[in-house]
Each structure stands twice: as C-alpha cells, then as structure tokens.
C-alpha cells in the first residue's frame, strides 16, 4: 500500500507540476514562441520586401543602363555630326581664307607690277634724256656735224613747206 500512496503522491506531485507548468509556464512559453514566430514572420516579410525592392532596383538599373547606352549612342552620334560640321566649316573657312589671300596676293602683285612699270618708265625717261643729251652734246661739239645738222634741218623745213605751198596754189587754180 505504501506503493499505492507513493504512486498517488507522485501522481499528485506530477499533476501539480503539470498544473503549475500549464498555468504559469505554458502562457509565457507560448508568448515567447508567438513573439519569435512574429519576429521570424516579420523578417520573412522584410526579406520578401527586400527581394521585391532588389528586383525592382535591378529592373530600374537595367532600364537606366539601357537608357544610358541609348543616350551615349545619341551623344556619340551628335558629337560625330558636330565634328563633321566643324570640320566642314573649318574647310570652308580655310577655302575662303585661301581665296582672300590669293586675291590679296594678286592685288599686291598688280600693285607692284604697276609700281615697277612706273619706276622703269621714269628711269628709262631719265636715261633717254641723259643719253640724248650726251649724244646731242657730242654731236654739236663738232663744228662740221653742227653745220651738217643745221643744213639738214633747213632742208626738212623747206621740204615741209613746199607741199603746203604747192597744195594752196593747186587749190586756187
């Protein structure tokens, strides 16, 4: 019987322990488990949200990358077009400048040519006068040459006046 009472006392002690555990410990453990489950659920939800944000960010990144590549291609094309336009403008400017320099050179050459012609005419005139003066002086320094020149001049004057006089007398007859 003693075993019976031991069994009953152990059973009562066990029931009391189970009651205390059930009454006081179980709600605390349940609350801790529920809190842990909520925390884990929040972390899972946060991870899902983070994955969604990551996927959205990757999509935006890809779109931005594609857009930047398109924009870079546009910028390259625009830069090439600008470079080609600038090169053409520079060619045209160089051509205009070359034409202006060529025209200026021709004008300068014409001016120099006219100046040289004027100088040559003046110098030739001076040399002609100087040479003629020298020839006349030399020719007239000789008495026989001087007399011969005066005679020839008089003969020429006579021959010039003879046709005029003949022309007037013929015209009156």
Question: What would your notes on this structure say?
Answer:
It contains two helices and no strands. It has 173 residues and is mainly alpha-helical. The N and C termini lie far apart (209 Å). The relative contact order is 0.02. The model has no long low-confidence stretch (mean pLDDT 87).
Précis, in short:
It contains 2 helices and no strands. The radius of gyration is 66 Å and the shape is rod-shaped.
Key terms:
173 residues; mainly alpha; 98% helix; rod-shaped
User: What helical percentage do the residues reach?
Assistant: over 70%
Oligomer: single chain
Shape: rod-shaped
Proportion of strand residues: under 5%
- Average pLDDT works out at 87
Query: What is the N-to-C order of secondary-structure elements (H for helix, E for strand)?
Result: HH
Report Rg: 66 Å
Weakly predicted, low-confidence segments: none
Structural class: mainly alpha
Give a quick account of the main beta sheet: strands, pairing sense, barrel closure.
Answer: none
Task: Give the number of helices.
Answer: 2
Q: Helices, strands, pairings?
A:
Elements: H1 2-141, H2 143-172
């Amino acid at each position: 019987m003693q075993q019976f009472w031991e069994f009953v006392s152990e059973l009562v002690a066990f029931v009391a322990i189970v009651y205390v555990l059930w009454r006081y410990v179980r709600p605390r453990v349940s609350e801790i488990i529920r809190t842990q489950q909520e925390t884990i659920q929040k972390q899972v939800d946060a991870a899902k949200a983070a994955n969604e944000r990551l996927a959205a960010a990757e999509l935006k990144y890809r779109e931005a990358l594609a857009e930047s590549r398109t924009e870079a291609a546009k910028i390259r094309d625009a830069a090439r077009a600008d470079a080609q336009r600038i090169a053409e403008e520079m060619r045209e400017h160089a051509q205009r400048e070359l034409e202006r320099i060529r025209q200026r050179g021709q004008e300068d050459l014409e001016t120099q040519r006219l100046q040289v012609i004027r100088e040559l005419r003046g110098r030739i005139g001076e040399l002609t006068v100087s040479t003629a003066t020298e020839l006349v002086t030399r020719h007239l320094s000789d008495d026989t040459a001087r007399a011969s020149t005066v005679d020839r001049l008089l003969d020429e004057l006579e021959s010039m006046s003879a046709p005029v006089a003949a022309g007037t007398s013929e015209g009156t007859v």
